[in-house]
Amino acid sequence: MGRLIIQQFTTMDGYAAEPDGGLRFMDQIRGWTSIMDANARLLEGCSAILLGRVTYSMFAAYWPGADPRQEPIAEPINRLPKHVVSRTLQRAPWGDGEAQVIGDNIPARIHELKDTESGDVIVWGSLTLTRLLFRKELVDELYLHMLPTVLGEGLPAYPPSAAGEKFVPHSAEVLEPGGVAVRYTVR
């Protein structure tokens, strides 16, 4: 049985996106090497990727054409099975292949995905999906890449329904260029 891990980039004040959903605050990141290395280590234990529709659209436009020599996580991202939660997509093309669309019975299908995967299931971004996963108590771990910036307002990295969760830190790492990666077990 795999664990469901949400990996989220966040500002120091807890936002994962600007009020309009933009990610311009991430443009300031210089030296992605340590962040990519941390994600590569995370992917070693993963056997599937779960994305919401918006994040899927961003990833599908970029990762299939990414050069693995320049982007060390391109190979595992493109190799691992992908699942996209969407009530509007009928298909989810990914390079020469397809991601599986989960459009109905979403909590049950995600629970089944966790039960059938031998490794962890990683969720990147996907704020709408993250809210659902917390509400349905399907999250096992929260992995935050906290960037050294403050937005003051925006879309929260985790939903209000996470307020009742107990987060137990189990690792922390300083990343270039001054960010911090913190992993929490959700109980």
From TrEMBL:
GO biological process, one term: riboflavin biosynthetic process
Molecular function GO terms recorded: 5-amino-6-(5-phosphoribosylamino)uracil reductase activity
Pfam families per record: RibD_C
Positions of the Bacterial bifunctional deaminase-reductase C-terminal domain: 4-154
InterPro entries xref list: DHFR-like_dom_sf (IPR024072), RibDG_C (IPR002734)
UniProt feature coiled coil, ranges: none
Name of the protein in question: Dihydrofolate reductase
Record organism: Crystallibacter crystallopoietes
